[in-house]
Design brief:
By secondary structure, the protein is α/β, with parallel strands linked by helices. It folds into two domains: 264 residues, Glycogen Phosphorylase B (Rossmann fold); 186 residues, Rossmann fold. It contains 17 helices and 18 strands. The protein has a nine-stranded mixed β-sheet with strand order 3-4-5-2-1-6-7-11-12, sandwiched between helices.
Length: 480
Amino acid sequence: MNVLIVASEAAPVASTGGLGDVVGSLPAALAELGCSVSVAIPAYRQALDRIQAWDVAGVGLSVPMGWGTMRGDILQSELAPGVPLYLVRCDPFFDREWIYGPPSGGYWDNPERYIFFSRIIPSLCASLSLSPDVILANDWHTGLVMALLNEGAVPGAVGVFSIHNMGYLGLAPLDRAGSIGLPSSYYGMEGIEFSGQVSLLKAGIVYAKNVVTVSPAYAQEIQTPGLGFGLDGLMRSISGRVHGILNGVDYGIWDPAIDPHLTRNYNPTDLSGKTACKEELLQVMGLPPDLAGKPLAGMVTRLVAQKGSGLLTDACHALFSMGMGLAVLGSGDAGYEQALMDLQTRYPDRLGVKIGFDPVLAHQIVAGSDIFLIPSLYEPCGLTQMYSLKYGTLPVARATGGLRDTIVDPNEGKGEGTGFKFDRFHATDLVAAVARAIMARERPNVWKAMQENAMVQDFSWRRSAEAYLQLFEKTVSMNR
C-alpha cells in the first residue's frame, strides 16, 4: 500500500498542536505495518531551520493562481527512518515567522497559501514519479486535494480526508476563489459553497471517498447542530462514509518508566516514584510543600474558550475551598492568562501558574499531579488525557469527543474506572467531578486500583495505524 499524507504541519519539523503530532507519528506506525509512506508539507521557515539537510527533488513546478502563476520547488528530507518528507518551497508564501500567523490572528492570505500548496500536490506526484494508492489529506488546508483527485489529477489515487477540528472551515470569499481552479460545477451548494463563500474544509468532505475524524464520539458529534459548525446536515448525509479513529500516543516519549524529565521514574507495579515527582512539581511551581499530602490537580492546555479556560477560572474558588492545589501551564487568550495570574495572586498557596509552553514542565505536571483537569467545551480527540492515564494521574474531564471515548468513569459500571467525567459544561459540574475524585483518593485501595487500571490502557499508534490501514484498504477496494 503506497500512502501519501499531505498536511499543513508535521512534528517535529513544523507543528502547532495535535494535527502536527498526528502527522509526525502516524507515518512511522503505518510503515511498521508494511506501508510505503511519504509526507508532504509546506517548507516553512521554521521547518527549514530545523532540518539538518535536504535534497532538491524538483524545481520550478508552476501553479496558475488566477492573478498569475506561482512556482514552487520540492525539497526532500526524512521525517522518520524510511519515511520521505517532501517540502513545498515557495518563499513568498511560506518564508514567514509564523506557520499560520501571529497570535493576534492568521495571515490574510492563508486561503491562497494553502490553495497553492494543495494544487501543487499533483505536480509533486508527477515530478517525483510517486504513485500513491491513497492520499490522506488533513483539515481545511488540504481539503482542495480531495476535489483535485475527483478531477483525476493523480491517476490511480483515492482520497481519504481527516477532520481534526470541524471548527475551522477554511473560508474564502467568492471574489478570492479564482485561484482554486476547479470547473464551475464545483462552486454550488452541492460543492464547496458555504454561506456565500467557499469552504476548503467542505471540499475535503464532499469529494473524499471516505472521511475520518480523530475519535468515534467526535464522528457522531459533528453530525449535530452543536458541533457541526453549519455542516452537520452534510455530515449526516454522508454518515456511511464517516469513520472515527482515535489518535495514538508515542509511548517512547510519554512513559513514566523511562521519562528523562522526571526526578524519579515509576511504573504500574511501583508507584513510589510518583511521590517524588509531586514534591518536585510543588517546588518548581512555587507551591508550599505541605500540599504534598493534599490533592494536587494539574492542567496543561491552551488558554482558550474551547479548552474550558473560563470554566476553570469560575470553578477555582470552590476547588480551593476543598483544600486542593492546582498547577497550570498554558498560554492563549490574554484575558484568560490575566484571570489566572489574578487568581494566583489571591491564592498563592494553592495555585501555581506558568504562562507559555515548556515541554519539560508539561511532563512534570502530568507526572506530579494526582488529578488532571480537561474541562473542554469540545475535544475532537485530545492527547493529554492519554498521557495522564499512562502516568497514573487520573483525569477529570468533560464527556465530549475523544475524552468520552478514552476515559472510563467508575459510575459506568465497567470496573474500577480510569477517571471521572461530567456532562454539562458548567463550573458546578466540574467541581462535583473533582469532589468525586478527591473522595476516591481518600480510599487508597480504590485510588491505587484506578491508577493501575489507567496506566495499562493501550493508546499506542500501532493500534490506530491498523485502523487507518483497514480504512485505506476498504477505500481502495471500493473504487476498483
